[in-house]
Design goal:
Layout: H1 2-11, E1 14-18, H2 24-31, H3 36-39, E2 45-49, E3 51-53, H4 63-70, H5 92-107, E4 116-119, E5 144-148, E6 155-159, H6 161-164, E7 169-174, H7 180-187, H8 198-201, E8 207-212, H9 214-217
Parallel strand pairs: 1-2, 1-4, 4-7, 7-8
Antiparallel strand pairs: 3-6, 5-6
């Protein structure tokens, strides 16, 4: 909660970019419960997403839906403070432009520095929806782009490194034995900037913490 308190004290608000997939579900449930929910100034908290699948908000694959079910519906956050990535209401390119406009409006001409950004990790080294071999990891100007990726569903919208490399605090949340190999590969990465793994190429200017469960960390289960 120190990050939240510092952000509100220094900037009057706490801006967080949520990650997708299954891993953050546990963190959402924790955040929506005592004491964390009571300690969060929800009227000063703004929720964004690091990426979104190009599906309706009530689709089981929607990152917004997961957060709405496990967090947003359980806490007194003002609806205006929830900034979902628009999806099927417009073509992907228009949705990306609309979300970038929302971000630029929120950051009011300042750099897009999230106080906290949650990031996941795919088994082949993707993070957000920045996948190996994709052009989005090389993006130098746009904050949000549509992508077609080798995953289900293939159409997605993602923040680019232009934003993700400015995060003040970044938490990588990684769980499960399927991530053990990629976690080890990232640990052994000698030249992250040249890595084929997008997760290695994201080098935020602020603090980066990795939260791994034992399976992802490659440790034996607790005896
Ligand atoms: C998404 C993501 C993606 C996710 C990883 C890990 O929309 O899928 O944001 O980067 O964080 O694929 O997903 P799991 O937590 O489901 O393993």
């Amino acid at each position: 909660m120190r990050i939240v308190r510092e952000a509100v004290a220094e900037r009057g608000r706490f801006a967080v970019a949520l990650s997708g997939g299954h891993t953050p579900a546990g963190m959402y449930q924790l955040w929506a419960a005592k004491p964390y929910s009571d300690d969060t100034p929800w009227d000063r908290t703004h929720l964004f997403w690091g990426d979104e699948r190009y599906v309706p908000q009530d689709d089981a694959l929607s990152n917004f839906r997961t957060a709405r079910e496990l967090l947003i519906s359980r806490v007194p956050i003002p609806p205006a403070n929830v900034h979902p990535i628009p999806t099927v209401s417009a073509p992907p390119e228009r949705s990306a432009e609309a979300y970038e406009a929302d971000l630029r409006n929120f950051f009011a001409g300042q750099a897009p520095e999230f106080d906290l950004q949650l990031l996941g990790l795919g088994p082949e080294g993707h993070t957000a929806s920045l996948f190996p071999g994709g052009a989005a990891i090389e993006e130098k100007h746009r904050w949000v782009v549509p992508v077609e990726v080798a995953a289900t569903p293939p159409e997605r919208l993602t923040l680019t490194p232009v934003v993700l490399n400015r995060g003040r605090n970044t938490f990588f949340l990684v769980s499960g034995g399927a991530k053990r190999t990629i976690v080890a590969a990232l640990r052994d990465e000698r030249d992250p900037q040249a890595s084929r793994y997008p997760a290695a190429r994201i080098q935020p200017q602020g603090r980066v913490l990795w939260f791994l469960d034992r399976a992802a960390a490659g440790q034996a289960a607790a005896g």
